[in-house]
Amino acid sequence: MCGRFSIAGFDGIEERFQIKIEFPDLKPNYNVAPSQDIPVILNKGSNQLALFKWGLIPYWAKDPSIGHKMINARAETVGEKPSFKTCLQRKRCLIVADGFYEWKKEGSTKRPHRITLKNKELFGFAGL
What we know:
The protein is mainly beta and 128 residues long. The protein is built from two helices and eight strands; from the N terminus they run βαβββαββββ. The chain has a four-stranded antiparallel beta sheet, with no helix packed on it. Strand 3 and strand 4 form a beta hairpin. The longest helix is centred in the last third of the chain and has 9 residues, at 82-90. The model has no long low-confidence stretch (mean pLDDT 83).
């Protein structure tokens, strides 16, 4: 997953993910960052929307602040790394978004580029 993403609105989320929104105070966020609460879709027999803090804290971690750094898992090694292996097998979710950012270096600065689907609809990132 990227380092920043956006959720500009929640129109169509109920139809797109076959869920019922039980959090009426969800607000748009164009700059979702690690450690913030994010809406995720869980499947516990049926799809459910929940709010989770973005960042993985492994069961063996002594300091919970490690979760701010553990935001990406590589597909090539996710099944092998102790931090992600158990979550991959038992604790998966979808992270709701409508865009994500890639950064382009321009001289000595980096400029963000927001990438969305052509139709601007919501989509889900794979999450652990």
